[in-house]
Amino acid sequence: MRVLLAGGAGYIGSHTAVSLIEAGHEVVIVDNYDNSCPEAIARVEALTNIQIPHYEVDVKDKAALDAVFKKEPVDCVIHFAGLKAVGESVEKPVAYYRNNIDTTLTLLEVMKENHVNQIVFSSSATVYGAENASPLYETMKKGTCTNPYGWTKWMMEQILSDAAYADKDLSVILLRYFNPIGAHPSGTIGEDPQGIPNNLMPYVSQTAIGKRECLTVFGGDYDTPDGTCLRDYIHVCDLAEGHVKAVEYAQTRKGVDIINLGTGTPYSVLDIVHAFEKANNLKLNYKIGPRREGDLAVCFSNADKAKEVLGWQAKRNLEDMCRDSWNWQKQNPNGYKK
Ligand code: NAD
Ligand code: WQD
Predict the structure, then answer these.
(1) What are phi and psi of 193, to 5 degrees?
(2) N or C end of the chain, less CB within 10 A?
(3) Are 312 and 233 in contact (CB under 8 A)?
């Protein structure tokens, strides 16, 4: 298949590009590099030994996107393009709604006009909200989000579902990711957050390399075995392979399907700290601090549906995730910047 990756230069998109190419598919990337850079694509090309057609295009720009669709006919789209920082979304809700909703609407319009009927969407466990108890099943009613970022995912799921209801040719797969971490084992592509990281693993690796003084564990008094929050961390290469299965599955059916991509196994923040220390034979400077507003104590998937429907399950363990995150950080202390 030929797959267009909207936002394909980003963390998950770049890893998915590698997996798709390894599985024998072709990829085309569009990205405005709002949170990424062309160097990520160059590294994917070096890893796969394949030249990837790529375009600096804002997915909200309908004419520019249409020109790419005309020039590069594709069978399927994976929609990664979006702003994703939870805290920033509280500060700049309009920018988040504008970018995330508009990219989705524009993609749907341009797909329809170019007779592309398959879309795989990067959704998030955040749409389950606080009402649902883990393990989280796809059959659960969506919950109340705690921030504009989460609401954009919630709304985009609704928009894509309504579009599929109206257009019986459309095949929509809503992938709900849990907590992607890790990097390609080569250490040449990985997560490259701008400024101070919001997410746990980049903060851990930047602390280990000395860019941050100390990791603050947000809350040690949760009702969990060690008092710190539980999450479903998944290796980004497993996640990428899940996308390969999803685009192949999208070809075989119509309508909407929701699929969790997680491991189904929760780990605490302290589990991550200790696993990172052990896998990489180092000591992390950390302290227990106050809770972070909006954090849930526990969030993990039931991962059965992905296994049944896609024939996919995560293969890599926590040690792999910690080793590969550190390998990327060590080789690229400043991310993609030289
Ligand atoms: P990322 O920021 O690394 O990748 C997103 C990419 O989209 C970036 O390359 C960015 O430049 C691009 N982009 C943003 N707006 C665009 C626009 N208008 N036009 C063209 N390109 C645009 O993020 P990621 O971690 O790779 O996440 C990919 C998707 O998965 C996002 O939609 C994110 O919300 C979702 N998601 C991520 C996580 C996570 O923890 N990383 C979890 C759940 C869902
Ligand atoms: C993980 C755990 C923190 C940083 C977010 C989004 C979610 C999804 C994935 C996109 C939590 C703790 C963190 C730190 C810490 N993104 N932590 N110290 O919050 O589970 O999910 O990213 O869809 O929507 O909300 O991920 O990596 O920020 O936090 O103790 O410096 O690590 O409290 O328990 P989260 P995270």
Answers:
(1) -70, 145
(2) C
(3) no
Instruction: Supply 76's token pair.
Output: 């399927």
Number of other residues whose CB lies within 10 A of the CB of residue 19? 22
Give pTM, 2 decimals.
Answer: 0.98
- Residue 296 pLDDT class (50, 70, 90 cuts): very high
Cβ-Cβ contacts under 8 Å for 151 (sequence gap 6 or more): 97, 145
Closest residue to atom 17 of ligand 2, CA basis: 200
Residue 279 belongs to what H/E stretch? helix 269-280
The per-residue pLDDT for range 38-47, each reduced to its tens digit, is: 999 999 999 9
Ligand 1 site-directed mutation target among 28, 34, 203, most atoms within 8 Å of CB: 34
Strands 179-181 and 286-289: unpaired
Write out the two tokens for 194: 């701008």
CA 164 – CA 234 distance, rounded (Å): 29
Q: 149, 177, 233, 286: which one is catalytic?
A: 149
